[in-house]
Amino acid sequence: MKHLLDVSDLSIAEIDQLIDTASDIIDNPEKYQEKCRNKKIATLFFEPSTRTRLSFEAAMLELGGSVLGFSEAASSSAAKGESISDTVTVVSCYADIIAMRHFKEGAPMAASLKSNVPIINAGDGGHNHPTQTLTDLLTIKKEKGRFDNLTVGLCGDLKFGRTVHSLINAMVRYDNIKFVLISPEELRLPDYIKHDVLDRNNIEYNECTTIEDAISELDILYMTRVQRERFFNEADYERLKDSCILNTEKMKKAKDDMIVLHPLPRVNEITTSVDEDPRACYFKQAMYGKYIRMALILKLLGVE
């Protein structure tokens, strides 16, 4: 049995296989309608979610399976003090696969040690979000046609942004990748990622504080929100929440074929006027998330 806790658990060949399967699902959905008949996914979400939870549930339903689970810790026995280990031990008796989001870093790893079925990390604190990264990679492949020779701007909350951390870990394995890290000083990418991931893999990167300084050189602009739930101090959040905002004026300086991605939810870091720009791909990205999760469920369940 294999779990997905970190995107680095997957080889490049496995990522390519998942993307190929997802692409085939997009082109031939009828082939997959009964692939998971009589299979169940449990979605254990100890932290709020819209896209990730619903896309997992939609993925299993479109594969012919069924869904059980909860959408917040308060509606589970965690509210009574039950441990993650006990919750997962019990739920793995009822389901064939588990997608789990938790506010504590490392919680899905702890769950995997007790589970009798595959565990998918659907986000753990500020640490990792591997299925969002698979979504991002599928979007990049569909919209740009390649993973190499790209300049990727990462903008917003780079300190706590688990989607950013996962994407960096995935893309450093491809050739001629350059990152531009756009954030206020207080939300810069953690040093351990710079040293252990970027420097160790000889990846070129530079840092700046405004979108205007970088947008003209980018092939991909990956926007993120400043996450209120990661701050201990409300005053710090209020001070930093509007640090990086993308609008139509800034988009005029971008390449004609640049794409804008965002894991969503959006607050105000992308103005709604940008939505009409054909380079805005974040809603397509949310759609692709369902298809890559369908491919992942099939892989982890060993369904051909």
Task: Identify the notable features of this structure and list them briefly.
5-stranded parallel beta sheet; alpha/beta; 304 residues; single chain; 10 helices; 35% helix
Question: What does this protein look like?
Answer:
By secondary structure, the protein is an alpha/beta fold. The chain has helices spanning 12-27, 51-62, 84-91, 107-112, 130-144, 162-171, 191-199, 234-240, 248-251, 282-301, and strands spanning 40-45, 66-70, 97-102, 119-124, 150-155, 177-182, 204-208, 220-223, 259-261. The strands form two sheets. A five-stranded parallel sheet has the order 7-6-5-8-9, covered by helices on one side. Strands 2-1-3-4 form a four-stranded parallel sheet. α2 links the parallel β1 (40-45) and β2. The longest helix is centred in the last third of the chain and has 20 residues, at 282-301.
Summarize the SSE layout with pairings:
Layout: H1 12-27, E1 40-45, H2 51-62, E2 66-70, H3 84-91, E3 97-102, H4 107-112, E4 119-124, H5 130-144, E5 150-155, H6 162-171, E6 177-182, H7 191-199, E7 204-208, E8 220-223, H8 234-240, H9 248-251, E9 259-261, H10 282-301
Helix pairs in contact: 1-5, 1-10, 2-10, 5-6, 5-10
